[in-house]
Amino acid sequence: MTATSTDSRAPDPPAPARSPRRPARAGLGRPLLGAVGILALLGLWEAVPRLGVVSARYLPPATDVLAALGVRATTPGFWTAVGDTLAGWALGLAIAFTAAVVLGFTLGALPRIRAYTNSTVDFLRPIPSVALIPLAVLLYGTDLRSTLLLVVYACFWLIYIQVLYGVADVDPVAEQTARSYGLGRLARVRYVVWPTTLPYLMTGVRLAAAVALILSITAQLVIGSPGIGREIAVAQSSGAVESVYALIVATGALGVVINIGVRVLERRVLRWHTSVRGEATA
Amino acid sequence: MRRPLAALTAGAALLAATACGAQGASSEEDGGLTTLTAGVIPIVDVAPVYLGVEQGIFAEHGIDLRLESGSGGAAIVPGVISGEFDLGFSNLVSLIVAREEGLPLVTLSNGATTVGEQGADFGGVFVPADSPVESAADLEGATVAINNLNNIGDTTVRESVREAGGDPAAVEFLELPFPDMPAALETGQIDAVWAVEPFASIIRESGEREIASNFVDTHENLSVAAYFAAEPRVAEDPELFDELTAALEESLAYAEAHPDEVRSVITTYTEIDQSVIEELTLPRFPADIDTDSVQTLADLMVEDGLIDSEPDLDTLYR
């Protein structure tokens, strides 16, 4: 029915005065295009094993996998695993966020100390989180804390660096103006530094949200801490190929949901910012 | 100036604050039972402990056994050393290597033993149906996939080659996870694979050829894996570990006597397809480690250079 409403260029009743011609169609088209993309991918996935390009035993057709996922979604074990994965994701992201914001704002305000730490940060930042797996296992065994160590380490740098850039981007004129008006240190952070940093911070959070999910799953997959990743590992070591793909699809879906959530959050938090406002009015 | 370090550890420190209980977390009293945690792999071989828990054998010995089936075995030895696990399950080559590296591990009981029958073991060497390879001796110059280099796989496969009159040094080994082996074999990406259940059954079912039973070639009574613990932990509470060992031995005997129950308990902790479970070759589950077979294994490890010198196996057994 969406197709007919776009085709028959009818009066366009809902179009408000401020959005001229184009946006109405673009607004409808975008999610539609996304859906078409997914359908095309599923179609290709269905065809490849059916046509015998790849053996169906190692890549079961999409319909079989989705059916397996459907069956699995009715079991409480699946939702426990999803919950565990999201717990590792959310907690890890929250810890990384808090630590990065506190340290970022503190060090951002102290340029001399920041200069001292630069080289160390550059040394630690590129260390891949997965390289910490042996350490995580030794410290925390196979429970949630191992997952958190990996997630926090990876996400901290992403957000921290963005905060530093944001703090450094404060307009000196605005800063001086705020000083002239007698704003105290905290007030300046609240009314000058914070709004400047926020877009950077949100970029960091958006990147970190995706990375946190990847590492949450990786930790479960490799270390065996509870969650979808461990379910994948068990299915793998059981030779249950359909279950493996079903869980991978579930992970992908989780990623999409998280991404949509973060984008909604970004739009709300930055609704005053030109990057968001611009898109809405263009 | 220490800020950078603080930055690194900030997140970790927050967590560490809550982590202090990790060491002793596993032995709190719970309704008169002592809670112990075992690090196991979700594979067929550990069915006896799952069965033992299900049958209340551990409870009879005053133990509430929690089974942590992490993914690979990678987390088990560190977990046992750090005290996260009270006991673990591992193959004997890994245990001998760990012991040689100075990790204080001791075995509690046997884990899984070869069936001892050529062509009908729970693991073997497989080649594609149309492969020119007829026996293990023909593996000279071929590439064989194994799950872990310098471990029980290549050590025993080399012995198969040696027994068949081939030169084990001429065999190339490649690391590949078990789950990827059936596809690699079918698509001809690899000359041969060494696989264990359930993948041995999956490979057999797709019509590939089995050319050697490497465990049987090594020793007809080969103890493949064992349950183990950390020596200091055992010394701390010998009575508890006596009870644990007794419960393990009883569970193994129960599993040995009730293969049907073994097959049904496998469905509770793996996702192996029902049709495969019915076809599976189960290992044997004698309670005692065959020390003679472990000696053979250790000699091979020295010969192949996995370890430098003859290990003192007496210290390995509790």
From TrEMBL, chain A:
- Is the keyword Membrane assigned to this protein? yes
**InterPro entries documented for this protein:** MetI-like, MetI-like_sf
Please indicate if the UniProt record lists Transferase as a keyword. no
According to the record, the residues making up region (Disordered) are 1-26
Question: Which Pfam families does the record match to this protein?
Answer: BPD_transp_1
Where it sits in the cell: the answer is: Cell membrane
Give the GO biological process terms: cellular response to sulfur starvation; transmembrane transport
According to the entry, every stretch annotated as the ABC transmembrane type-1 domain falls at 82-266
Query: Topologically, how does it sit relative to the membrane?
Result: Multi-pass membrane protein
The UniProt keyword set, sorted, is: Cell membrane, Membrane, Transmembrane, Transmembrane helix, Transport
List membrane-spanning regions. 28-45, 86-111, 123-142, 148-170, 191-223, 243-262
GO CC entries: plasma membrane
Main location group: membrane
Family (UniProt): Belongs to the binding-protein-dependent transport system permease family.
What is this protein's record name?
ABC-type nitrate/sulfonate/bicarbonate transport system permease component
The scientific name of the source species is: Nocardiopsis aegyptia
UniProtKB/TrEMBL annotation, chain B:
Localisation per UniProt entry: Periplasm
Any single Gene Ontology cellular-component annotation: periplasmic space
- One family name in Pfam for this protein: NMT1
The UniProt entry, under SUPFAM superfamilies, shows: Periplasmic binding protein-like II (SSF53850)
- Origin: domain of life: Bacteria
Alphabetical list of PROSITE patterns matching this protein? PROKAR_LIPOPROTEIN (PS51257)
Q: Which UniProt keywords apply?
A: Signal
Q: What residues does the SsuA/THI5-like domain cover?
A: 45-261
UniProt record similarity statement: Belongs to the bacterial solute-binding protein SsuA/TauA family.
Q: What is this protein called?
A: NitT/TauT family transport system substrate-binding protein
Biological source species? Nocardiopsis aegyptia
